[in-house]
Amino acid sequence: MxxxxxxxxxxxxILSIIVAVTxxxxxxxxxxxxxxxxxxxxxxxxxxxxxNPNGDAKLILASARQAGFEVTTLALDLGIGDFQKVLRNFRxxxxxxxxxxxxxxxxxxEGQGKNWLIPVDAELGSARDLPYExxxxxxxxxxxxxxxxxxxxxxxxxxxxxxxxxxxxxxxVTNGLAGIDVDNFLxxxxxxxxxxxxxxxxxxxxxxxxxxxxxxxxxxxxxxxGGTVRxxxxxxxxxxxxxxxxxxxxxxxxxxxxxxxxxxxxxxxASQARNLEAIEDLTWQxxxxxxxxxxxxxxxxxxxxxxxxxxxxxxxxxxLGLSAxxxxxxxxxxxxxxxxxxxxxxxxxCIKLTGFLGRPDQLFLSFEGGDRFxxxxxxxxxxxxxxxxxVEEKFAFEQPIGFRVMEHDQIGGHxxxxxxxxxxxxxxxxxxLTGDSSQYKITYTLAVTE
Length: 450
What we know:
By secondary structure, the chain is an alpha+beta fold. It has ten helices and 21 strands. A six-stranded mixed beta sheet has the order 2-1-3-7-9-10, with helices on both faces. Strands 11, 12, 16, 17, 20 and 21 form a six-stranded antiparallel beta sheet that branches. Strands 13, 14, 15, 18 and 19 form a five-stranded antiparallel beta sheet that branches.
C-alpha cells in the first residue's frame, strides 16, 4: 500500500515524536543528559544598561547545576559576534541531549513580526538594522533543535530602548515579545506577549528568583514548570507581571529532577505513584483552566480523596451559589467555626492615588476561589487619597488563602492594586500594596480557631 506523500510525512513525524519521547522516558532523570546555555546581557554600550541580568544569569547557573545539568555554559555581556559564536558552539552540546535549555536575560523586543534578543553592542538606528545587529529567536531555537526536550526561557520582555530615536515610519517594534507557536518546544516568557517585565527591586528579577527555586524542585513535571513560575511572579508583583507559557510538548509527565521516594517503596510502586500524581496535577490544571462545575466534578470523580478535593468542592459550591465565605459581622470567631481562619478588621488606607482627572478609585476585594466583596451587582467602594475603607464584615476560610485589592474599571476588566497572602499565625498585620500607580496600606486581623 502506498500512502499519499503528505500522509506519509505526517506519520513519519508522529513516529519520530513517539520514538523521541520513548527514549527520554526510558532514561531516568538522574541519568538523562541535560545541558544549559545561560546568557545575561547587562552592560549595554549604546542604550540603557540593565541592572539584574548578569546576576540573574549567575543565579540560574547555580540552579541549573543543582538540577543536574551537566553542561552549563555561562555567557555574559555578549556582542553580536560572540553571541553567534556561543550559539554555534552550544549547538554541538545540545545535539542528542535529553534536555537542552537556553536562558536569556537582557533586552529583548518584537520587530518585523519576529522576536529579537539584543547584543550589548547593538546600535539599531532603525528597525531595518535588526537582522544585522540582533539575534532572531528562531536562531536560538535552531541551536537546541537536536535535543529531545527543548526549553527556551526568556527573561527579556523589557521595553524597546531604541525606539525613541527611530523615525515613526520605522517603528515596527513594540514593547515586550510576541507569542510563538512551535512544535516540540517549551517557551517560557517573563511577561505575556506585548507586555514588559521588570528587574524588580532586589538583586534578582522576580522571574529569575522563581525559576531558580522551581528548576531543581523534585516532583515537578516540566509541563508544570511555567505555570508554577507564573503563579510565583503574579504573587510577587501583585498581579502586575504575568509570565506566559507557549508549549507544544508531550503530555506525558517529564521530570528534570528525580522524584523523592521512601527507601522501602519498590521502584515500580514509586513509578506508578509518580505517574498517578502527575496525572492528578494535570487534571486539576485542566479543571482550573475550564473553570466549570463539570470539570471540577470530573476531577472529584477520578480523585475523590485527592490533594485538590477540598478546593474542587469549594469551587463547585461557589459556582452553584452555595458559598458562605462571609460571616455575620457580630459572630464571634469561635462560634461554630472550629478549624477555620477568621479574617476581620480589614482597613484599606489610600496613601497615593493617580486616578484619571482626580477621580476616586472604586475598590473591591477578590478572594481565591472566586468570592468577592462587595458581591457582584453591588457598587464598589469609592476612595480618595487620605481616605480609608474599613470593612465591617468577617470572612471565614477552611485554610489560609489570599485576596486581592482590586480597582473596578468601567471600561472593561479590572486593575490589581495588590495581593495579600494570609499566613497561619494569628495576629494583626499591615503591609503596603503598590499597583496601577497607586499606593495603599492594608491592615487586617487573622484569628485562628482551635
